[in-house]
Amino acid sequence: MNKTKIVATIGPSSSDYNILKQMALAGVSVFRLNMAYASLEFAREVILDVRRISLEINKEIGIMLDTRGPELRIGGLEKPIIHLEKDKLIRIIDQSIIGNSEMISVNEKEIVEHTSVGNSIYLNNANVKLVVINKDENTLVCRVVNEGDIISESTINIPDIKFNINFLSNYDREVINFAVQLQVDYLALSHVREEMDVLDVNDLLISLNDNDIQIISKIENKDSLEEIDKILNVSDGIIISRGDLGIEISLEQIPRLQKALAKKIKEKGKICIISTEMLSTMKNSIKPTRAEVSDVANAVLDNVDALMLGEETAIGNFPLETVKVMKSSIEETEKDINYKEILTNIIKNKDIDISKAISYSACEAACAIKASAIVCTTLSGTTAKDISNYKPSCPLIAISPNAKVVRGLSINYGIIPMTVAQADTTDELVDISKKACDRALELHNSDKIVIVGTFPLHNVKYTNFLKIEEIKKEE
């Protein structure tokens, strides 16, 4: 099985029930809905389908919603796709119109007000580049430098300018309220610039009486890079969004930044996800390029928690095949990982408490005896995350009576989350752990497992239990 998880974005190509089910069976651990493009009605149907599929295939599947964020966008267009030709002129105006190849509108008046002659403007995730050659009070006159396609409400990036736009729009507040109602597991915050953006969302969740949704901040602009330490401290995890980053900084810097950010995120024990163009060729091809497979392998070797598929599964022609390619690429790369070396490097010069000491010992023991699995009982998910962050050499089965906690572990490295009954004695705990292992992995006679957790579950505040068991099958 792959320890590095797969997050797949759902769109028109993949929202069919049977395709969703096949993708889950093929290796998707978390399904993502980007609310910059998906409607609440569409999202509701997908979420209900995923929950039903989860029960059918007996697999805990996480749900992630992306907020739209304080994003700059163009208005609607007279055609679904409009091609802008090189060297042609196009006007950008601050009034609401139906756009075409000669004139488009924008959702914020500040765009026209603060943009100057000579500024570069990128449309539709930098698919098109414009340069401003003239302006008046309500209009920017631009020349098309790099031609390409635009779609209705596609993005605008102007790297040289900071716009004073509220982080939480009314729409995003509605999305977050919707996420709470539907018991979504992860909120991915788009265009985070500082820690207060994250804290505002956290305050909103508190007001909605939700302590379970995990906040994942997307790093996709220069401001977020400069404030990464503060953002990381108040987030449950980070998405390294290479697409928008590649607009604001040079492409040559992306590989180095990806590695540096991944290292920093994992040192903090937070969730780390790599996104954008992992297998982009597979939007239109049944096979990836060698460079794309190498990119997947590189991210796996950076010890991140998950890799994200975007347009490949949302609007691509081969969503299921893309998932299968990513899974096989991950599994092949993970064969060569030296888990003992990783564990040794993680623990160097690191102060640890009692719970983390037992988590570390569980991984060390599992590696030494070549255990088939570690089973972790957890009420809050903290112990399971601690063990996951030590990169165990074998699968980590996280068991809990709390279904929300279990789903919230679906994105963490190496974890197989599972909802089970609560154990009242240590004998029950061992028995439940062995049954969970057998259900997830079909263990054989003489296989060894490491059981770790907190017991009694509600009365002790730290991880205090570690036991090694050998599987004995009845003949």
Describe the 3D structure.
With 475 residues, the protein is of the alpha/beta class. The chain folds into 3 domains: 5-69 and 168-334, TIM Barrel (Alpha-Beta Barrel), CATH 3.20.20; 81-157, Beta Barrel (M1 Pyruvate Kinase, Domain 3), CATH 2.40.33; 339-470, 3-Layer(aba) Sandwich (Pyruvate Kinase, Chain: A, domain 1). 37% of the residues lie in helices and 22% in strands. The protein is built from 17 helices and 21 strands. It has helices at 17-26, 40-57, 109-114, 170-181, 195-207, 222-226, 228-233, 242-248, 254-267, 290-301, 311-314, 319-334, 339-347, 354-368, 382-389, 403-407, 426-441, and strands at 5-9, 28-34, 62-66, 81-84, 89-93, 103-105, 120-123, 128-135, 139-146, 148-151, 156-157, 186-189, 214-219, 237-241, 271-275, 306-309, 373-377, 396-400, 415-419, 448-453, 465-470. The strands form 4 sheets. Strands 1-2-3-12-13-14-15-16 form an 8-stranded parallel beta barrel, surrounded by 8 helices. Strand 12 (186-189), helix 5 (195-207) and strand 13 form a beta-alpha-beta unit. Helix 1 packs parallel to helix 12, helix 10 (290-301) crosses helix 12 and helix 13 packs antiparallel against helix 14 (354-368). The longest helix has 18 residues, at 40-57. The two termini are 27 Å apart. The mean pLDDT is 92.
Descriptive labels:
single chain, 475 residues, alpha/beta, TIM Barrel, Pyruvate Kinase, Chain: A, domain 1, 3 domains, eight-stranded parallel β-barrel, 17 helices, 22% strand, elongated
